[in-house]
Design a protein that fits this description.
Strand 7 and strand 8 form a beta hairpin. A 7-stranded mixed sheet has the order 3-4-5-6-7-8-9, with helices on both faces. A 5-stranded mixed sheet has the order 11-10-12-14-13, with helices on both faces. It has a two-stranded antiparallel sheet with strand order 1-2. It is of the alpha+beta class. The chain has 11 helices and 14 strands.
Length: 453
């Protein structure tokens, strides 16, 4: 039974939300214990779709006040600092997004339409600006190359003065609190040209060699506007391989039982309880480094608290379920970029019984990595091209959490061909383990020729 959030704008009616799932199929987290994470000296390894998934301990859900210490991030000097800065930047970006979303929910804020009619808000440009600025400040602008979704064309159009002013103010308000996230802020307020420069600096086209970052400042803008799920997605790619991934999920609750309720309802109930410095109910940041064999999750930083590094986090793993009859699969909310009818037929043919978890953005990848679902399937319609920023962070996180991500032919996703996943065969499939993955691949092969995609 689908659950709905309230309409936020008459031009953007809310047709979908979280789909209620069978609570018994969702794993529990309180049994997870913190570990000290050590990155070995050889940090890059070849991912394989035959990896064996780790099981998730079963016990009661995480409770407020259940403290976790660690992990201790160490290892290759070439990436340890990048991970620390990336996590801090995404934490800060989530803080910014929550402020902007609150304004959208109460006043309808400023929502613009891009050339493809997809929505974009102050948060999209502001997050891109602060992450671009932080990365450049931390590593030197000459050493930072970023592939990102937004540009400054809309902000530079005549009549966009009010929108541009809002972005500049939002950026500076956020950067004033950079110290809370273990980051160095600017010595003085950024002027309009500096903010525009930070946004437009994200103009890399990627490629097979060298190092570059991918950024989706607000993945799932439609969910963001509607008060539903969205994500801040940042990844680092070296010579075509995703080596770091960070996902900020501000509306994705740590308590699994909250998944059955709309984020709007959850927000209201949360305000009735006493807030804590690190509430596991109010969103999370998930991250992983390639080759570590671990994915980690920490709560968002709230109120006036500071991010401490090493930080409060727990190790997460994919679900141990490999029976399709018990598995939960998730798919995109919008039909525009994914065929619900094909995935429904595929689910039936492979024996999936649970209703799909329809959720905006790369939160789907977080759901697989965390064990809230076992399968993610996306089969775009003809002509649609997948962008690397929509997948990079989620892919490495699932892989390090013990899962498998490939295209629908079973080949690893290729991030070395520029802004798009060129050569992608039919679609994207992410699974909690190799057994489920093989069953889905075989079902796709059997069904594809009769589909009209």
């Amino acid at each position: 039974m689908p659950l709905y959030t309230a309409n936020l704008a008459s031009k953007l009616p809310h047709r979908f939300g979280f789909t209620r799932t069978n609570a018994s199929s969702l794993p529990n987290y309180a049994g997870l214990k913190p570990f000290f994470l050590f990155f070995p000296s050889t940090h890059v390894h070849n991912s394989s779709q035959n990896r064996i998934c780790s099981s998730v301990p079963s016990s009661s859900s995480i409770m407020e006040g259940n403290k976790h210490v660690g992990p201790l991030i160490s290892g290759p000097k070439s990436l340890s600092q990048e991970l620390k800065v990336a996590v801090g930047a995404v934490q800060m970006a989530c803080f910014l997004c929550q402020r902007v979303q609150s304004n959208l929910l109460t006043s309808n804020g400023q929502i613009q339409a891009k050339d493809d009619n997809s929505p974009v808000t102050v948060a999209d440009w502001s997050v891109q600006a602060i992450i671009s600025w932080i990365l450049s400040k931390s590593f030197g602008s000459k050493n930072v190359s970023i592939v990102a979704e937004e540009d400054v064309q809309t902000l530079s159009k005549p009549g966009a003065d009010r929108l541009l002013k809002a972005v500049v103010e939002t950026v500076n308000e956020c950067l004033c609190e950079a110290y809370r996230f273990g980051l160095e802020g600017p010595e003085s307020t950024l002027c309009t040209s500096e903010v525009l420069e930070a946004i437009s600096r994200c103009n890399s086209s990627g490629g097979p060699t060298g190092r570059f970052w991918t950024l989706d400042p607000v993945d799932g803008t439609l969910g963001f506007i509607r008060g539903d799920q969205y994500a801040v997605a940042l990844a680092l790619i070296e010579d075509g391989e995703v080596v770091l991934g960070v996902l900020g999920c501000p509306n994705y609750p740590m308590r699994k039982e909250w998944l059955c309720y709309s984020p709007r309802y959850h927000s209201i109930i949360s305000k009735l309880s006493t807030a804590t410095s690190e509430s596991w109910d109010k969103g999370c940041v998930i991250y992983a480094q390639k080759g570590s064999g671990e994915a980690w999750m920490q709560p968002l930083i709230h109120a006036n608290k500071k991010l401490v590094w090493p930080n409060s986090a727990i190790s997460i793993h994919v679900s141990s379920i490999d029976d399709p009859a018990l598995a939960t699969f998730c798919e995109p909310v919008e039909k525009a970029n994914s065929s619900h009818s094909f995935t429904a037929g595929l689910a039936h043919s492979v024996g999936l019984r649970n209703q799909p978890l329809r959720v905006y953005s790369m939160v789907k990848y977080a759901a697989i990595a965390r064990g809230d679902a076992e399968i993610f399937m996306k089969f775009a319609r003809a002509g649609y091209k997948e962008k690397i920023w929509d997948h990079a962070a989620g892919v490495v996180i699932i892989q390090e959490a013990g899962g498998v991500v490939t295209d629908a032919r079973g080949c690893l996703l290729n991030f070395s061909n520029g802004m798009y996943l060129e050569g992608l065969d039919r679609g994207v499939i992410a699974c909690a383990g190799a057994n489920l993955h093989d069953k889905i691949i075989r079902a796709v092969d059997a069904s594809w020729n009769s589909s009209c995609l």
